[in-house]
Amino acid sequence: MQLQLAVPALLVGAVSALGLFVVDEVAVVVEHLLWSTLPSLWGLDPGSGWWILGVLTLTGLVVGLVVQFVPGHGGRDSATTELIAPPLKLAAVPSLVLVTVLGLAGGVSLGPELPIIAINTAVLVALVARWWPRVPVELVVLITVSGTIGALFGTPVSAALVLTGVVAASKQGGALWDRLFLPLAAAGAGAVTMRWFAGPQLPEAGPPPLGTPDAVDLATGLAVAVGGALVGLATVHLFPHLHRLFHSLRHPVLYSTLGGLLLGVLGVLGGPITLFKGAHQTGELIRNAADYSPWQLALVVAVKLAALLVAASAGFRGGHVFPAVFMGAGVGLLGHALIPGMPLGLALACGVLGVLLPVTRDGWISLFVAVVLVGDVTVLAVLSLVILPVWLLVSRAPGMVVSPPGSPEASEPTL
């Protein structure tokens, strides 16, 4: 059975990567139009406050119009969905692609992972049902999620870590590795395909390696990780309340336009570094860290936190991982500036770990992203100890997801 499905799994992984690549490339073209071509044509500075405010407000208005009036309504609200969700109908895909591209290009502080997975899942479930009708839908969803995650992070290891808990919790028998075989095949194909076309989404900071850690590294790493966790906890606790506040306006045109306006104000306050999903900006922030005082770093983190909350609450489609990595890097740089002698790589890794833990509710992916960002496996020894007390701090916090309006859980303040 596994051998028979290996080729479909490889094809699903490759197509998942192509879906991510195409949406990303279209978003890059639109971004260049909005933030380079048009302001250059009109002799304006794209980094000026008025341009930032205007583009983000217009982005919110257009996203709201699509969600309210275009067939498919932009798919499900990303605030109500997990990575693994039932496939959308194909009719919803065009509008979801449109609002995803608009958000990525317009400077909205959300990543591509949730809408890309939803787009790929809807398309591939339909294709596999046509060409391999005996393949269960649940398996197609699983390998599509795996292929897309592999493409996003450039390695199948990321998908293995994300899906280990899901697969282990299923009622199917057999060894865990056997049940991960097809998802890993899809993730490997997705990672290789994406590297051929564009490379992984996450930046690599490349600070000096930590080497052999000592007790001081453990203490300072824990301090920075706790600081990051407090930032992440503030995000997840405020999220359902802000989402309910925006959606009390009832009409997507109203709450998305308001969200775009607030994102514009935040962009003016924090500067261009706080716009967009945060992958490129994370690398830029780390490279230019010497240009920021501790107060400026704190402001950048606070603005990005607010921007993530507004974007996720106001009907925009997107995920939370990339903005959370940006915030974690900011926390790490702040810790490095405030704690004399703390290694930069350790500070960055612990900051990212701390923010991602409450935002993603996943220790494996938090460890993985923290190590990938700094490109130094020697920090793993410290992170493996630091994550234990930090997880106790965040384990009872709500997840960063809300119930859809009208569901039995919708009246609860958190999930």
Q: On the 0-100 scale, what is the average pLDDT?
A: 86
Taking the alpha carbons of the first and last residues, their distance comes to: 38 Å
Spans of at least 5 consecutive residues with low confidence: 406-415
The radius of gyration computed from the alpha-carbon positions, rounded to a whole number of angstroms, is: 21 Å
How many individual helices? 15
Please tally the β strands and state the result. 0
Largest sheet: none
Which H/E pattern describes the elements? HHHHHHHHHHHHHHH
Form type:
globular
Percentage of β-strand residues: under 5%
* Structural class category: mainly alpha
**Share in helix:** 55-70%
Report on this structure.
This protein is mostly helical. The chain contains 15 helices and no strands. It has helices at 2-41, 49-69, 93-106, 113-131, 137-153, 156-169, 176-197, 215-247, 252-270, 279-287, 294-313, 321-338, 344-360, 363-374, 380-394. It is globular.
